[in-house]
């Protein structure tokens, strides 16, 4: 334990990454809560509708996260080698794949919005509001794909501040435009849910513009000719997918699993869906350090493997494995103590408020376990290039345990939201044993960037 707190290099490195990444997540989560508060004034139906549409967008974002994370594994290790040429190629491949995925998701949102919402609920009011919302935000899928690709590249070369600033500008733009367009301020008509969708769309355009300017002005790695960024060949793509396909599948499996959770909640009732939307929004504010630690861990470990310092990568992984649950305990206590006050801000009835506080209590209890699990899957193993094992653990615990158990509890035994959510959360307990065993084995250490050294493209 003493070695953990005396390692200045470790803490300086992690702080330089964790602070901007965490601040970005905190700002995003805080403003998302404000977003929900504003929409919440339109009623629980509006909260549920926007929450269910966000589940579809969440699936899209996790597909992007899989593509970006796969590219990030290579870019982090390339940066350790100072291989700028391949960083540029990987950014180009990241952009191409992300744009393709955004076109697919956007197409479904434009052509079949009602079908998408009806996957989650049959409530006519929620379907109508959700359809209105998703049609407008469908245009932002392409914008988001470009933003995320460049943000990933910036973080991997050690510049986590620019994505933070971009997110800050976009989110405050979103909050201000929500106030104007949802409620009809500054002479604009009150547009309700449609106003929230327009505000979100404009904010994402603003964020993309900032990130693009920053990416090409703040460093000498990303600025390059088109032929350099598109200089990858089929062998380059094959090596990327050999490692990244597991990450993409992992994110897809997880996102579909969380969407299945939403379907389970909807089987209990619309108030339960609204309760979970609020609980998840609040919980995300207290999970920001978890995401910050995991993202920083992936970059740090990838950099050290790229430098050929696997011993230091292992050392960092062990220290992070101790640090993460410690931070999780603090985060869980803070969530437990503040839950009643935060929930009281929302315009919901007493029954929904009680359900939400109970769910947040369960989330706080499981916070240390979740911090450790996310750190291992998203941070250590992914940064080490060990993507298949994490995918199998995620696939097994969610789809073979949590979803069947939760569905049976909700549909056949008609249990309350609190009990169903507790059953779903037991997945964190099942998962941890597999991860500790893998961490100790050191089998997660893989220099996936080494195979790229022989690839050259004539342009």
Keyword list:
mainly alpha, disordered C terminus, 459 residues, single chain, 18 helices
Element layout with pairings:
Elements: H1 2-6, H2 8-40, H3 44-81, H4 84-111, H5 113-120, H6 124-137, H7 140-156, H8 161-183, H9 193-217, H10 226-229, H11 234-268, H12 270-286, H13 288-306, H14 310-343, H15 350-383, H16 387-412, H17 417-425, H18 427-441
Helix pairs in contact: 2-8, 2-12, 2-13, 3-4, 3-6, 3-7, 3-11, 3-12, 3-13, 4-7, 5-6, 6-9, 7-9, 8-9, 11-12, 11-16, 12-14, 12-15, 13-14, 13-15, 14-15, 15-16, 15-17, 15-18, 16-17, 16-18
Walk me through the structure:
Helix content is 84%, strand content 0%. With 459 residues, it is mainly alpha-helical. It has one domain. The C terminus is likely disordered.
Strand content: under 5%
Tell me, what's the shape?
globular
Class inferred from helices and paired strands: mainly alpha
Specify the number of helices: 18
How would you spell out the order of helices and strands?
HHHHHHHHHHHHHHHHHH
CA-CA gap between termini? 52 Å
Helix content: over 70%
Rg over C-alpha atoms, rounded to the nearest angstrom: 22 Å
Total E-strand runs: 0
- Multimer state: single chain
> How would a textbook summarize the main sheet?
none
Number of domains: 1
The low-confidence parts are 454-459
- The averaged pLDDT comes out at 85
């Amino acid at each position: 334990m003493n070695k953990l707190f005396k390692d200045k290099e470790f803490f300086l490195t992690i702080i330089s990454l964790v602070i901007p990444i965490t601040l970005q997540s905190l700002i995003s989560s805080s403003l998302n809560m404000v977003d929900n508060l504003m929409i919440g004034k339109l009623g629980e139906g509006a909260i549920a509708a926007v929450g269910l549409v966000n589940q579809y967008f969440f699936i899209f974002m996790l597909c992007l996260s899989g593509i970006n994370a796969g590219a990030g594994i290579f870019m982090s290790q390339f940066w350790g080698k100072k291989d700028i040429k391949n960083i540029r190629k990987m950014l180009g491949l990241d952009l191409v794949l992300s744009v393709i995925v955004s076109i697919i998701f956007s197409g479904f949102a434009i052509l079949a919005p009602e079908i998408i919402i009806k996957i989650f609920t049959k409530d006519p009011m929620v379907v109508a509001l959700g359809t209105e919302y998703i049609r407008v935000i469908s245009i932002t899928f392409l914008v988001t794909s470009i933003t995320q690709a460049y943000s990933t590249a910036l973080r991997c070369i050690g510049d986590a501040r620019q994505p933070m600033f971009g997110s800050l500008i976009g989110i405050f733009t979103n909050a201000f435009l929500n106030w104007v367009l949802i409620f009809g301020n500054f002479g604009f008509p009150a547009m309700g849910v449609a106003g929230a969708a327009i505000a979100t769309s404009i904010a994402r355009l603003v964020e993309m513009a900032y990130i693009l300017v920053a990416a090409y002005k703040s460093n000498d790695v990303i600025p390059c000719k088109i032929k350099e960024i598109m200089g990858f060949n089929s062998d380059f793509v094959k090596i990327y997918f050999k490692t990244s396909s597991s990450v993409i599948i992992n994110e897809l499996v997880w996102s579909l699993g969380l969407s299945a959770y939403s379907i389970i909640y909807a089987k209990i009732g619309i108030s339960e869906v609204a309760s979970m939307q609020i609980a998840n929004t609040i919980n995300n504010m207290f999970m920001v350090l978890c995401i910050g630690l995991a993202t920083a861990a992936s970059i740090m470990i990838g950099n050290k493997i790229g430098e050929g310092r696997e011993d230091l990568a292992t050392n960092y992984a062990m220290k992070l494995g101790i640090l993460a649950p410690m931070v999780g305990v603090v985060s869980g206590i803070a969530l437990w103590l503040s839950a009643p006050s935060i929930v009281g801000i929302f315009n919901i009835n007493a029954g929904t408020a009680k359900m939400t506080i109970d769910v947040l209590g369960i989330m706080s209890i499981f916070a240390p376990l979740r911090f450790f699990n996310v750190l291992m899957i998203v941070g250590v193993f992914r940064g080490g290039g060990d993507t298949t094992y994490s995918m199998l653990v995620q696939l097994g615990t969610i789809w073979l345990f949590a979803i069947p158990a939760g569905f049976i509890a909700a549909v056949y035994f008609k249990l309350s939201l609190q009990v169903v959510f507790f059953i779903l959360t037991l997945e964190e307990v099942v998962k941890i044993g597999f991860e500790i065993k893998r961490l100790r084995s050191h089998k997660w250490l893989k220099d996936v960037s080494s195979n790229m050294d022989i690839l050259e493209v004539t342009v």
